[in-house]
Amino acid sequence: MTGIAKGTILRLLADLGAACAVYLDENVRHLHCKKIQCDEVWAFVYAKDKNLPENLQNSSGLGSVWTWTAICADCCYVTAQVSLSEKSFPAGRAAS
Q1: Residue 36 β-bridge partners
Q2: Which residues pair with 86 in a beta bridge?
Q3: Which of 39, 58, 69, 81 is 20 to 30 A from residue 23's alpha carbon, by CA?
């Protein structure tokens, strides 16, 4: 679709994610947020849970993945975000 190798695009996305994490950690500080809205987005990695081959059923990071976000309702800054699989960290513990 892009004419660029899949591995190249994946490395670029990983590098971009790391750069964004550093930027947010260094610059998103001392916000005067009065109301934070939290939400989650579900996605899957490799395959949906029901379609994962048996040999990959217990592999961390495959199957269902949730990205949890905390957004300032007033200024719309994303004040925090984390992506987790239920296998590596149960969803109910993310909010605590």
Answers
A1: 72
A2: none
A3: 39
Q: Which helix (H) or strand (E) holds 64?
A: strand 63-72
- What pLDDT tens digit does each residue of the chain (96 aa) get? 778 898 999 899 999 989 988 888 888 788 888 898 888 888 888 888 888 888 888 877 788 888 888 888 888 877 777 776 665 555 455 444
Distance between CA 19 and CA 33 in Å, rounded?
Answer: 24
In this structure, which amino acid lies at residue 65? V
Q: Which residues contact 53 (CB under 8 A, 6 or more apart)?
A: 47
Q: How many structural domains is the chain composed of?
A: 2
- What is the span of the domain harbouring residue 23? 1-30
Distance of CA 32 to the CA centre of its chain: 24
Q: Are residues 41 and 52 in the same domain?
A: yes
By three-state DSSP, how is residue 40 classified? strand
Distance (Å, whole) CA 78 – CA 24: 9
Bridge partners (DSSP) listed for residue 65: 43, 85
